[in-house]
Amino acid sequence: MLPSGTYNISYSQDMAIVRTRLQWAVLVAFLVALFALPRFASGHVLSILNGIGIMLIAVHGLNILTGYTGQISLGQAAFMAVGAYTSALLTARLHLPFWLALLGAGVSAGAVGLVFGLPSVRIKGFYLAMATLAAQFIIPWMFIHVRADITGGVSGMVVPPASLGGIVFKSQESMYFLVMGVAVAMTFFAKNLVRTRTGRAFVAIRDNDIAAEAMGINLFTYKLLAFFICSFYAGVAGSLWAHWMRAINPDHFTLMDSIWYVGMVIVGGMGSTLGAILGTTFLRLLSELVMTVSPQIGRLFPFLAANILAALGPMLFGLVIILFLIFEPRGLAHRWEVFKASYRLHPFAH
Amino acid sequence: MTNLLQFLITGILVGGVYALIALGLVLIYKSSRVFNFAQGDLVMLGGFVTWTLLAQFGLPLWASLPVALVLAWMVGLLVERLALRPLIGQPILAAVMVTLALSYFFKGFTILLWSAYRRVFPELVPTAPVKLGEIVLSQHLLWTFVVSVLAFGLLTIFFWRTKTGLLMRAAAEDHQVAQSMGISVKGVFALTWSIAAMVATLGGLLLGSINGVDPTLGAIGLKAFPAVLVGGLESIPGAMIGGLTVGIVEGLAAGLIDPSLGEIAPFLVLLLILLFKPEGLFGLKRIERV
Fold first, then answer.
1. How confident is the model at residue B14 (pLDDT cuts 50, 70, 90)?
2. Chain pair A-B, CB pairs under 8 angstroms
3. Reported ipTM
């Protein structure tokens, strides 16, 4: 629904994402605030935001695959690992510049994603979840056992800081600008991708793959393309993660992380770019809340104190996902739409 | 040669446990078309419950097993009623995610009640290994295998010889037809979840008696996934054969090629199966044409 007084009188107006002066003002204000934040925020807040920014990139990718194309993937963290290791190897061992490593990480993760996306041509649903689950076990295993001399095996690798044109991103603050810059660019790309011919083909496949094929959409090409894009995003996120943490090992990319990413897509709202942002922020802040609240609960109930920190996170995460699936399967993004619509209609009911 | 035989037999014995867990998965999938990613965590939960009854309360096995099974039955009913039933008819991703979320929930719940360290069971079976010629077998594994096969046999008889079993098979065949014949399909869903939880508890007891229980035991469920897919998601005998196959593949890969390869060998098999024969050995082939 459009704000009142806004009409479409040309195609370009009809397609525009930002439509009114107010929306422009809000967008610009948001971006200014985003990039001015490091002046006011502490290092701890910045590190949380960096984490959110990096996860957001991975979740955007997963949202394109799961939310728009309807293919399930439980291997996003493994594809992130591929990106992280590629980037680490390219910069630490081959001394290539960071921007090249970032691209290389995306492409190599995309290529691995293609391999594990291949079964999607024949299978769907649970079976596809299984195939990507296999990726989640095979890929970290390979980093540990195949050529442990270059990947460092279980102990992992040390990664040099990212540097672009003479600037070295060593502190949380400088990393913040890099992460947010990439995250904004990737969000922009994701938002626009789904409005193109390719994006519409993805949606058609999600809604009914047989009908989509009958309409001339090549399922093979588009499903694999969706897997490539999804894993490309994961690879870029992995690369940033590696240069942010400055040390990686296969334990950083577990099945649990993959499930978290799917959870973020669901909580935010599948098939919505805004949803990816909302879901990532919501769940990440929730786990931050658990960290701060657990010791207080432990003080109130001393007999639980020893376990509460490790227990509360998974329990709450599971509960939140189940509640969202049952009561708001369209996620936070849908809630936001409902809110906007009622705001625009106020004081009328319809 | 002896080595080969040793690995093969150990693999078969371990495969028996996988088969038992796979059975729980197949039951739920057959009746409700939901793949239960939380089956391994039900195993873990069952293991902890039986441990509490055996070691904390000091009950004998003949008393604690029935109590644990009744508790598992209630857990199964609760899970089905609270988490699964509201999602009937939702897209497949919801069904995948709800069981994954349940798996998280159980993990957290177990840590909350029992904390994260390993608990060792009191000795139920003598630990001395049995020797068959040159092959050494652990008595634990042997008992585990026997109990798994027995449970499998009992459930098979239940499905084919009792009226309730007939209802469950009818509901698995077609929900609408079963419903119109007066079968409560929702009741069948609840029943399958409680049977699966009971089977998982039995698995938890068996596995726990070998190595003790800790929250990582839930990962055993992941090993059963390849077993189910090898056998075919809808086939109960398939679960047995799939479980044994995965056990053997794992045993041989770990023993003959590289010990660490054992961890992922089942998943390599899984990928191959998915690429070339997605319906598994005994599953139903669904044909969709444009």
1. confident
2. 136
3. 0.88
